[in-house]
Design goal:
The protein is built from 11 helices and 5 strands; from the N terminus they run βαβαβααβαβαααααα. The chain is an alpha/beta fold. Strand 1, helix 1 and strand 2 form a beta-alpha-beta unit.
Length: about 220
C-alpha cells in the first residue's frame, strides 16, 4: 500500500510549478500526483488524481476568488488545501481560511517549510504563518463579540439602536437619562421602547432586558 502523501500542484507560473515539484520529489514520503496551470476545467484531473493535498499558488486563488478551492473541497472527500507563495494580506488570508484552506505558506518560505506544511496538513494539522496568527485570533474574538448582537437582531428583530437601549435600561436609567446619554429626544426613546416591547412580547422594560440576557446579549453599556 502506498503510504506517500499525494500532492497535486496548481500554479499559473510554470517556473513555480517546476520548483515546487523539484522540492517535493526530493522527499521520499511525498508523491507529485499532477501539475497544471489553473483553469476551471482542471478540477476533473485533480479529482481523478486521488491526491491528498492540493497545493495552490496565490495568483490562482486571487483570480478565482477561492471558488476553485471551495469546489475542490466539496468534490474530493478528505482533501486538504495548502496555499503557497501567499502575501501577508490579512483580507486574502481570512478569505482563504473561510473558504476551507488548511494551510497558508508565505512567499519567503523555504523548501523545508513547504514540505513540512504538506506533511502537516495531510495529518489534519493547520499551518499558519506566525505573522498572521494574531490576525486569525483577532478575527475569532471579533466574531465572538458580535454573535450575541447578531442573534438578538435575528431572533428578536431589535435594531442596533434598540440594542443600545438594553444595557441602559438594565442600569435603571429613565427615558430622560437614556435620551441624554444617546443624544436623542425623550419621545424617540419612548418610541423605541414601545417597539421593543412589541417585538419581544414583553409587558415592561425589565422583561425586555431579561429576554436579551437569555439570548447572551452583553448588558454592559
Amino acid at each position: 500500500m502506498d503510504s506517500r502523501i499525494h500532492v497535486f500542484l496548481v500554479a499559473g507560473n510554470r517556473l513555480l510549478r517546476e520548483a515546487l515539484a523539484r522540492i517535493l520529489k526530493k522527499r521520499n514520503d511525498i508523491e507529485v500526483a499532477g501539475s497544471l496551470p489553473y483553469s476551471p476545467e482542471i478540477l476533473e484531473e485533480v479529482t481523478a488524481s486521488g491526491c491528498d493535498v492540493l497545493l495552490m499558488d496565490s495568483v490562482t486563488n486571487t483570480l478565482s476568488d477561492m471558488g476553485f478551492l471551495r469546489e475542490a473541497l466539496a468534490r474530493i472527500p478528505g482533501l486538504k488545501v495548502l496555499l503557497v507563495g501567499m502575501e501577508r494580506d490579512e483580507t486574502l488570508f481570512l478569505r482563504a481560511v473561510r473558504a476551507g484552506a488548511a494551510g497558508y505558506v508565505l512567499a519567503d518560505a523555504s523548501a523545508a517549510d513547504v514540505a513540512a506544511a504538506v506533511r502537516a496538513v495531510s495529518q489534519n494539522e493547520a499551518v499558519c504563518p506566525p505573522s498572521l496568527c494574531r490576525v486569525l485570533f483577532r478575527h475569532v474574538a471579533r466574531q465572538r463579540d458580535e454573535m450575541p448582537s447578531i442573534r438578538v437582531r435575528i431572533q428578536l428583530g431589535l435594531t442596533r439602536r434598540e440594542q443600545q437601549l438594553v444595557p441602559l435600561i438594565a442600569q435603571g436609567l429613565t427615558n430622560k437619562e437614556i435620551a441624554a446619554h444617546l443624544s436623542i429626544s425623550e419621545q424617540t426613546v419612548k418610541n423605541h421602547i414601545h417597539r421593543m416591547l412589541q417585538k419581544v412580547g414583553a409587558s415592561d422594560r425589565l422583561s425586555v432586558v431579561e429576554v436579551c440576557r437569555r439570548q447572551g446579549f452583553d448588558l454592559q453599556a
